[in-house]
Amino acid sequence: GEDVEQSLFLSVREGDSSVINCTYTDSSSTYLYWYKQEPGAGLQLLTYIFSNMDMKQDQRLTVLLNKKDKHLSLRIADTQTGDSAIYFCAESPPYNQGGKLIFGQGTELSVKP
Amino acid sequence: GAGVSQSPSNKVTEKGKDVELRCDPISGHTALYWYRQSLGQGLEFLIYFQGNSAPDKSGLPSDRFSAERTGGSVSTLTIQRTQQEDSAVYLCASSFGSQETQYFGPGTRLLVL
Fold it and tell me: Any chain A CB within 8 A of the CB of B25?
């Protein structure tokens, strides 16, 4: 079935690295996404990775993909208080004609000064 | 506009009333999605439009929910005879096509009293 799992909370100190983990179920998903949601706001696309890649780096963000274990992670280097938000991973299964996204429950990241 | 816009940003209604939520996608995007974000259910897909094709309504929770997309652009999500469990944030997203990256609007926060 379709199920994306994330841990619900993560707390880090400002300046430390944050690692948010996600597991997904559909090994044939073509794209995997990370979205950020700040309080009272919509979803902001952070980054995505194509399924034939195992790593993608974009400034402070590093995405690692382990297809064998169906595990996706987002690392935020030098975490700042402005990074405090809920982070959602999402998969886009290819069998799904519409490309609807299947989201995890979201991980609430709290950054303490 | 530069991004997806939604209106109203907040809506309070009484149980049993009908509501209409509007979404303006990014210009040139042919695919449009509606999702619902609620405390108990997380982020759920509702409905998807792609060009002139028949919409994918597989995520609509009941026949009280309907949506249309006029002229391949603006979409309206209608909820008839609202119930308290309809209270949620309704998010709209658009993309260049199916399986392309989805960009989200700020959402409409619906509260049914």
Answer: no
